[in-house]
Amino acid sequence: EKKQTDFFENVGHELKTPLTSVLGFVETLQGPAGEDKATREKFLAILQQQSERMIRLVADQLSLSHIERIEYVKPETILDLRIMAERVKISLENQALKAGITLNLATPEQPVFVRGDADELIQMVQNLTENAIRYGRKNGKINIFINKAANHPKFSNENSCCSISVTDDGEGIAEEHLSRLTERFYRVDARRSRELGGTGLGLAIVKHIVNRHRGAMDISSRVGYGTTFSIYLDLAEPTNQTLPHQKIKQ
Q: Which residue in 127, 67, 71 sits closest to 95, CA to CA?
């Protein structure tokens, strides 16, 4: 009950700031300042930014709530992890370009089959990649790498799991923050995160998606050199119904 109460208090706090901002600008536009074209365009741009932030927050909250409800049910659909990563790369290339960041993807030539939910796996990789774009270095690089023969202590058999890693060459994160990054609304720099459009729920969503898929996540970072998020998942055997070379929808 305390966890639930804290969550709603945090959501209320996160919504109150942009709502207060929106109300203030609306009141200003209703006055004489609204008659000035330059002022009107500036304030309308801010109103749009704050509204989009609230939409992202509500969408992330609903997504997190949904994943938590079904977290105990492990997905059984066999998918090619490469396709999930390729879809994310295609969808985020323009965003990375605007941020002056090069987005690279390296995958094995052969399919990497896992049991999973396609939408959730895409959201998992997208959240990590968007985070890297948001906090990455100007003119830097983000590498998405899939390893079909990975190792992790959670998986007993050697090379029984695969991994997908998202690495940036940004400022990096101090070690004392790493263990708390997946907590709801935890931010290393709250003000900067809000300015960049972060909701504080992206990594919490990733954690619960990983849990639902019975996977594992490691975070490594070095201040001044960048951060790597690595997700480990069980490999799955393809069936007759599995299409090894599914086409990517653009």
A: 127
